Amino acid sequence: MKYFRKLIVSLALACVPWAMAQAQAVPSGSIRIIVPAAAGGASDIAVRMIGERLQRAMGQPVIIDNRPGADGILAAQAAAQAPADGQTLFFGITSTHVSNVVLRRKLPYDPARDFAPVTLLGTTALVLLVNPNLPVKSAAELVAYAKANPGKLAVASSYVSARMAGELFKQVARVDMLHVPYKGTVAALTDLIGGQVQVMFGDLASAMPHVQSGKLRALAVTSAHRTLAAPQLPTVAESGLPGYEMTGWGGFFVPARTPAAAVARLNAELVAIIASPEVRQRMLESATEVAPGTPAALGSMIAADVEKWRNLAELAHVEVTD
Hints:
The chain is of the alpha/beta class. The chain has two domains: about 30-125 and about 245-315, 3-Layer(aba) Sandwich (D-Maltodextrin-Binding Protein, domain 2); about 125-240, D-Maltodextrin-Binding Protein, domain 2, CATH 3.40.190. Helices cover about 45% and strands about 20% of the residues. The chain is built from twelve helices and ten strands. α1 (about 1-25) packs across α10 (about 260-275) and α4 runs parallel beside α12 (about 295-315). Mean pLDDT is about 90; it is low at about 1-25.
């Protein structure tokens, strides 16, 4: 009898560390997801869809905290300063973790120091567009035309990833084209349709209706492989520029020093949600291909992107701001 009592006590004590780890892995209050975008935008809609499912999976309220502005700096700073208790998630994007690092001299947060990755949500390809009056029907033909007419083609961009996609194209193709910045995608598309500029790298969701109506011509996508969002379009790489790739992405992070057990639990729940057929299809409708994975994989991807962008910015003499 004494033996069995000792055995029961031993088993109970052995379970204590496991129970403590589980307690750490399950936050006791509501979970807040900070989003660097206004309510109603593509990022907000995606995060809210995932947040609803995370709330059901975790059995705890999930609150979406929208912090738009300043290229995601306001949201990232708030997330970096949040308690590292597993109850705050940050939806990081290319600008918060890559372009801000490369193209700004000062940041009130350090993506590598202040955040721990949880999982990638997915990647989004850009599309290479031209005015239909331009006599080219492929990326290879665009390169040939640009080489025959150096400095005569104007490339529009309305956000940083589009700008860098154009700069990478010029570097890989070794062509001279004029960069024309715009404050908004609508204005850039309007001028592309009107012929004031001839080339643009844009997002599929806003560009494809104009392509389908014949107002614009889509030549290729910027991802390494053809995207399910527009499988009929070749990649820039397979159109004569091997190695070309430039995509945007979004993923989930927690403040640094969040307990490993909490990160593991959040990763498991989010990966299952993101990989579900319903979420996969909903994301594809906004031209995003889901690619959930490990925290380490997301961290490695970001490190590679920062190095790639920094090298490109130096080669293209892209301005650095405060």
